[in-house]
């Protein structure tokens, strides 16, 4: 009996490794291809010239001004998106949970809605809005951040929702209030510290999404990192691919950090 | 001892989509007194406490503490310490930091805070656990910290909403006695909500029994037990038998004996008499009309269930545990009231 079970277990573990390996190959192959492509010169010899070019910050902003601008824009976008998203979502979701539980379904629906709207439709819908934004706030790539907030809403909502579910917001905030804290204090000193993990993961997801966004920026004829890479690809494929690889690895690291942070409960701090 | 202030709730009403959670609740707490609110689930105990805390706004009525009208004052300005049924320690803070939270908001200096939190944690017997987080404490310990946290701010009123209901029986009685000791020590006027009658009777100066958003009776535990205002209170507080009898003005004839009637009883004709199991005796009697149905040993006491006659409801009789074994099912016995005053309601 136990022999059969052991055999089955061994078989399952073999199967698991096969699957993992296949997945790794699936993801690693293109990356390896990119690495290979960016480390060859015209004669097919190995060279680090492309990467050396990228690391030289001044060189990049001189030789590839669009790429530098796109990079700066994307970083700015990531920051704006994260800030607006958090300021919008955290108080709203907390408040709905505390005071308007009847609205929670509606809020969830609204937040998840962007998942079902294709980027192109979003752009069509946003075009008139953005003509106003441009009119009032001036012409700048950074305002794309508002569209990105909509884009990251479902993911951010999910992470924050998980965080809010894990704590008893109602009791905690009532305890805080009975001890003399106003709503602002409750938010900053009671709710936020206990949502740390959720807020971090929402922020990480927003950053990863923003850095990888192409469609909306391109359709609005704005230059962010991905758009710059795309156009660079037509003139200098090697640099473009190298940047692509770098940003992929960066996004991967962000997600890796996220799973690391998420795996730890906020209250599991050491006491000594 | 002199810190307590009086609390007056006047004609509080609160409706939730058609349900009258509070239906004209009026309640007075003397300075330094511990009043337990007792009642079945959904009778409005929590709502009453939350109205006093300011966590719920009454539709009408008044909340006064120490002579000041607080009805429209927000929770954080009311200066009330609360302990909740659910564990409510801030998970990201240690026990000490939890206790210091309210002091920090009151802008107390670090030294002063530390002294106060040490003192409070000592009071609840947790000096050894000051640097632990909630998840490192047991349920009982968490509620102790919550109590220390609530008392640290020297609240005008202490509010406890079933703080023990998540704990197991042993810890519950222990912590309940400790809450009473601490309450007497600090002298804070306290409202304690519970649906456990034993808990209420054990620690309260006075117990208020609620039903459907209203206060039925507010009295000291002994009085509540021996002179219930109506059958609901009699049923809810302690066990009670319902036996048919005939009322003659001041007394009622029941189970072959005359028993004085409590005020508020139905005074003429056939009635249902509410008699406590300890107010009945049972004796072996071969010629008796009653038959033992079952007997059980409960440690300090025993109970015998007896059928007093054909077509009559069985009654529960409390007996010393030493004699439980003398009664076995089928034995012929006689049941008699000992003569303690009883409540009678119109038969129906
Ligand atoms: N937020 C609310 N929304 C709707 N109805 C409510 C709300 N809070 C209380 N109620 C209703 O008001 C009534 C009284 O509730 P309350 O919580 O005060 O009862 P309770 O005596 O504390 O009961 P329990 O012993 O179960 O805690 C109940 O019928 C309950 O359904
Ligand atoms: Mg309740």
UniProtKB/TrEMBL annotation, chain A:
Primary location: membrane
InterPro entries per UniProt: MetI-like, MetI-like_sf
Annotated ranges, domain ABC transmembrane type-1: 71-262
Keyword Flavoprotein: no
Bilayer topology term: Multi-pass membrane protein
Keywords, comma-separated and alphabetical: Cell inner membrane, Cell membrane, Membrane, Transmembrane, Transmembrane helix, Transport
SUPFAM superfamilies associated with the record: MetI-like (SSF161098)
Pfam families named among the record's database cross-references: BPD_transp_1
Listed transmembrane segments: 14-35, 67-89, 109-130, 136-157, 197-220, 240-261
Superkingdom of source: Bacteria
Localization in the cell: Cell inner membrane; Cell membrane
Entries under PANTHER family matching the protein: INNER MEMBRANE ABC TRANSPORTER PERMEASE PROTEIN YDCV
Family, as annotated: Belongs to the binding-protein-dependent transport system permease family.
Name the record gives this protein: ABC transporter permease
Protein's organism: Terrabacter tumescens
Automatic annotation (TrEMBL), chain B:
One Pfam family hit: ABC_tran
InterPro entries: AAA+_ATPase, ABC_SmlMolc_Importer, ABC_transporter-like_ATP-bd, ABC_transporter-like_CS, Mo/tungstate-bd_C_term_dom, P-loop_NTPase, Transp-assoc_OB_typ2
Protein's UniProt name: ABC transporter ATP-binding protein
Keywords associated with the record: ATP-binding, Nucleotide-binding, Transport
Species annotation: Terrabacter tumescens
Top-level taxon in the UniProt lineage: Bacteria
Matches recorded under SMART domains: AAA
Molecular function, one GO term: ATP binding
PANTHER family found in the cross-reference section: SPERMIDINE/PUTRESCINE IMPORT ATP-BINDING PROTEIN POTA, SPERMIDINE_PUTRESCINE IMPORT ATP-BINDING PROTEIN POTA
PROSITE patterns: ABC_TRANSPORTER_1, ABC_TRANSPORTER_2
Every ABC transporter domain range: 7-237
């Amino acid at each position: 009996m136990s022999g059969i079970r052991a055999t089955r277990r061994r078989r399952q573990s073999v199967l698991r490794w096969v699957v993992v390996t296949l997945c790794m190959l699936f993801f690693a192959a293109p990356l390896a291809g990119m690495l290979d492509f960016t480390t060859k010169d015209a004669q097919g010899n190995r060279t680090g010239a492309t990467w050396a070019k990228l690391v030289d910050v001044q060189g990049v902003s001189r030789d590839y001004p669009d790429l530098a601008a796109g990079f700066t824009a994307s970083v700015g976008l990531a920051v704006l998106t994260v800030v607006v998203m958090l300021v919008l979502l955290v108080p709203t979701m907390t408040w709905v949970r505390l005071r308007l539980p009847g609205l929670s379904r509606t809020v969830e629906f609204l937040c998840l809605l962007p998942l079902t709207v294709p980027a192109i439709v979003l752009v069509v819908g946003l075009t008139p809005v953005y003509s106003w934004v441009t009119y009032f706030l001036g012409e700048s790539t950074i305002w794309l951040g508002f569209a990105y907030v909509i884009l990251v809403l479902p993911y951010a909502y999910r992470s924050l929702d998980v965080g809010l579910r894990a704590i008893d917001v109602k009791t905690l905030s009532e305890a805080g209030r009975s001890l003399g804290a106003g709503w602002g204090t409750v938010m900053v000193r009671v709710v936020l510290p206990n949502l740390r993990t959720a807020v971090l993961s929402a922020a990480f997801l927003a950053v990863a999404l923003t850095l990888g966004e192409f469609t909306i920026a391109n359709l609005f004829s704005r230059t962010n990192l991905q758009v710059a890479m795309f156009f660079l690809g037509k003139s200098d494929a090697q640099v473009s691919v190298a940047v692509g690889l770098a940003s992929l690895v960066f996004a991967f690291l962000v997600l890796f950090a996220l799973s690391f942070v998420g795996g730890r409960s906020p209250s599991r701090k050491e006491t000594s | 001892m002199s810190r307590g202030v009086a609390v007056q709730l006047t004609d509080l009403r609160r409706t939730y989509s058609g349900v009258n959670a509070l239906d004209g609740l009026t309640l007075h707490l003397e300075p330094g007194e511990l009043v337990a609110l007792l009642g079945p689930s959904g009778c409005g105990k929590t709502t009453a406490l939350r109205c006093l805390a300011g966590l719920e706004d009454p539709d009408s009525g008044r909340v006064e503490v120490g002579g000041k009208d607080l009805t429209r004052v927000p929770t954080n300005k009311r200066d009330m310490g609360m302990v909740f049924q659910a564990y409510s320690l801030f998970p990201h803070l240690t026990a000490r930091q939890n206790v210091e939270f309210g002091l920090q908001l009151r802008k107390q200096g670090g030294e002063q805070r530390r002294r106060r939190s040490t003192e409070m944690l000592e009071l609840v017997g947790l000096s050894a656990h000051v640097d632990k987080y909630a998840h490192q404490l047991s349920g009982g310990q968490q509620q102790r910290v919550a109590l220390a946290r609530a008392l640290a701010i020297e609240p005008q009123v202490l509010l406890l909403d079933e703080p023990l209901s998540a704990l197991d029986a042993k810890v519950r009685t222990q912590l309940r006695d400790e809450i009473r000791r601490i309450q007497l020590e600090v002298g804070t006027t306290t409202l304690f909500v519970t649906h456990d009658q034993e808990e209420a009777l054990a620690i309260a100066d006075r117990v208020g029994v609620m039903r459907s958003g209203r206060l039925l009776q507010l009295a000291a535990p002994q009085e509540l037990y021996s002179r219930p205002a109506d059958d609901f209170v009699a049923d809810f507080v302690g066990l009670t038998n319902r036996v048919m009898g005939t009322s003659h003005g001041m007394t009622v004839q029941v189970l072959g004996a005359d028993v004085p009637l409590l005020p508020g009883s139905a005074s003429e004709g056939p009635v249902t008499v509410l008699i406590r199991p300890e107010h009945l005796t049972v004796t072996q009697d071969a010629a008796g009309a009653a038959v033992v149905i079952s007997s059980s040993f409960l440690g300090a006491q025993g109970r015998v269930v007896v059928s007093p006659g054909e077509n009559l409801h069985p009654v529960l009789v409390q007996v010393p545990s030493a004699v439980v074994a003398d009664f076995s099912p089928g034995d012929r016995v006689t049941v008699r009231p000992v003569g303690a005053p009883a409540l009678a309601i119109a038969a129906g």
